[in-house]
Amino acid sequence: MKAKKTKWALVLSGGGARGLAHIGLLKGLEKEGFPKPALVVGTSMGAIVGGLYACGMSPAEMEHFVVHEFRIADHLDSFVFRIDGPVGKVIQTGQALASLAGRPGIDPGQRVLELLEKLTKGREFPETEIPFRCNAVDLLSGREVVFSSGSVAKAMRASMALPVVFEPYLYNGMCLADGGLFDNMPVSIARNEGLQQILAVNVNLFSPAIPEDFKNGPQVIFRSIECALHAQEENKPPAELTLDIAVETDLFSFFKQKELISLGEKAVRENLDSLKVFFELEKV
Q1: pLDDT, tens digit, for every residue of 92-118?
Q2: Are 190 and 198 in contact (CB under 8 A)?
Q3: How many Å apart are CA 10 and CA 185, to the nearest integer?
Q4: CB neighbours of 49 closer than 8 A, spacing ≥ 6?
Q5: DSSP states along 13-62
Q6: What is the dihedral of CA 222, 225, 226, 228, to 10 degrees?
Q7: Partner of 9 for a Cys bridge, out of 17, 88, 115, 190, CB 3.0 to 4.6 A?
Q8: Is the torsion defined by CA of 186, 190, 196, 201 positive or negative?
């Protein structure tokens, strides 16, 4: 069997640590020999994985980095994220509240930007190996911003600026926050770029909660964001094929790298028939 040279777009949703499943998805597609996309679109964590892939970082290289080299606390400026253990949880809560009282986010995101600059090798959009787009929301105008020029790393930093956790990114007179707030599955961006064959991957599935899930303010805020994202899904244009990856973990479980990546690989195996139809496989 071989795939026709179908011009297609890959759209990756946001979802915090859940987005590590996108790496496994890319690994699975590569293993099956499916053609690379003509366009990669992502938001938030999907923008990071998608942007690195578009810049030429292979799924195997991404997996090695997040499993063996990456520790999120090493790339955050805030003292809040550097304390472990039960006592640390108490201190974290107090430090977080103190941070929010005097600044627009717990972490300024400068170290994250420096890491992204390193991983993308300072590439700008015209220099990516695969065309790439990502989005953010401008808090000043309330409008979606779609990046297609300038620094890839800065665009990714803007797209992942989750409210409360990261300060908005000030860029070209805009105050930019997480693109998922406007569109967590930006299929419309791929459509606007002229792509008609679109594969979307959603790692941020909405599921019921219980009162015990809300033990502090941040948990309430993040759940409120999830509710808003869930409501917007009903009015967004669908992709030709959407793979829903059920990831039952919170937004910051970056220590579950192997488990999350394996879920992406599993999604490819379980949806192989649908993927073959999507790629219009034909007999040799």
Answers
A1: 444 554 555 567 778 888 999 999 999
A2: yes
A3: 11
A4: 12, 19, 20, 22, 23, 26, 42, 62
A5: ---GGGGGHHHHHHHHHHHTTPPPPSEEEE-THHHHHHHHHHTT--HHHH
A6: 160
A7: 190
A8: negative
Half-sphere exposure of 211 (CA within 13 A, CB side): 0
Closest among 72, 231, 58 to 129, alpha carbons compared = 58
257-270 helix and 21-31 helix, angle to the nearest 10 degrees: 40
Q: Which residues of 159-181 are buried (b: 16+ CB within 10 A; e: fewer)?
A: bbbbbbbbbbbebeebbbbbbbb
Amino acid at 172: N
Phi, psi (deg, nearest 5) at residue 8: -135, 160
Reading phi first (left if > 0) and then psi (alpha if -120 to 50, else beta), residue 194 is in left
Distance, CA of 137 to CA of 144 (rounded, Å)? 5
User: According to DSSP H, which parts of the chain are helical?
Assistant: 21-31, 45-54, 59-64, 85-102, 110-119, 152-159, 187-192, 217-233, 257-270, 272-278
Instruction: Answer for the pair 281, 1: CB distance below 8 angstroms, yes or no.
Output: yes
> How many residues in the chain?
284
What is d(CA 270, CA 114) in angstroms, rounded to the nearest whole number? 37
What is this structure's pTM? 0.86
The position carrying tokens 């000030």 is 170
pLDDT in tens, 130-142: 999 999 999 999 9
